[in-house]
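job 3f2a | input accepted
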Amino acid sequence: MHPPRRWHLRDSRPGDGACCIFGGTANSPYRRRSSDPPAVACSGCRRRKVPPHASQRRKLPPHQPGRTGAREEADTGSAACLGKAPASGVFDMQRHTVALIAGDGIGPEIAASVKEIFAAAQVPVDFEEHEAGLACFEKTGSTLPASTIDAIKRHRVALKGPTTTPLGGGHKSVNVTIRKSLELYANVRPSKSLPSVKTRFDNVDLIIVRENIEDTYAGIEHWQSHDVCQCLRLITRPGCEAIHRYAFNMARSIGRKRVTCVHKSNIMKLTDGLFLDTFREIAQQYPDIQADDILIDNLCMQLVVRPEKFDVLVLPNLFGDIASDLCAGLVGGLGVAPGGNIGDGTAVFEAVHGSAPDIAGKGLANPTALLLSAVQMLY
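job 3f2a | predicted structure (379 res):
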């Protein structure tokens, strides 16, 4: 596997001409800890205020972290705002075209908000829109047209809103299909306390690195008899090596000092045993980074007691899916949780909340999660 590329749309590093808003320091989802020296605006970084977004002018109700849509917490509240944006010329990067999949429900609304904010901040990104999800299925008979996959491959980077899988058998999840078809083996979910979102904790700053293709999500299920069905758990050595190496490379590149492997090898001795053994082997190649491990049940208890003790967590697919939503709850819910699916040379960034059709078109959708995912895309 090639080393992970954190700088998906940039050819330069922070501090070489990029504004601190998008240069991976001050407001990055990967922001360094409070003990590090404060970020300083780049030389010549003149800023102007971003014009109020349309949804802000509607005087939306205050943030409600517990607000739920059809499946997940698509938080309501005031629209996200970057505060101040860089003036013209501060981005040291060429223009890029990104495939934009607006999705279903509130997807088109929050995608429009992100496009407006990017335009106001003069981010050198052009969005090429493509379809996927339930609305696409009703129009074309496919939840994920080949043209959409081709666009992601062509541009190598995509931003995706929430999609709905049609009811009934035979319809695969758009998210799972994209991850498998493009081999996006690493799901990266930062969880960081936001000053404007009041929660039980104000010092959460961790990153979930979830294996994204294997485990029970490989989709190997069958009926053994009329009353018994079976789901097989697929864990491979190459898959383990790839996700562990990604976690350590990412930690090193952004100044993180600790990677924790999460497992249940005391019960699943072969599958999780392989995941843990491979982690320990890879960890020896990174002596500058502390490596330890923890059982998944203990992790869940520790997260709701002392979440600040964790830095980078690397998990198998199923555990990572569950734990990442728990971590999102620590910082305000899925409505403020960004996410990225990373492969070798291709990445899809997405809002991890659902399509929330019950509030679609009512001016209540909060675009923060998709906006933070779009900012994560810039690194």
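job 3f2a | The chain has a mean pLDDT of 81.
job 3f2a | closed
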